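Forum > Structural Biology > Help requests

Title: Can anyone predict the 3D structure of USP domain-containing protein?

Hi all, first post here. I have the sequence for USP domain-containing protein but no way to get a structure on my laptop. I'd be grateful if someone could post the structure tokens.
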Amino acid sequence: MFGNLFEEEEEEGFSSTSSKGRVSKGGDEPPPPRGRSNLCGIKNQGGTCYLNSLLQTLMFTPEFRGEDK
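Reply #1:
Sure, ran it for you. Structure tokens for USP domain-containing protein below:
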């Protein structure tokens, strides 16, 4: 169904260099935090977009994070 879900592919026009000039290690570490929220995403490898949305939903649920609001 998802094919080679965890195998990396090289695409034409894809650059592993970020806007700050650093070279990415191909998914070894997450991207640097962004903005005031200090959050960063995960690389979409096909089905991981569903996992990403679940994680984001849980992280913004006060009961899950243990916050009393």
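The chain has two helices and no strands. Residues 31-69 form one domain.
Shout if anything looks off.
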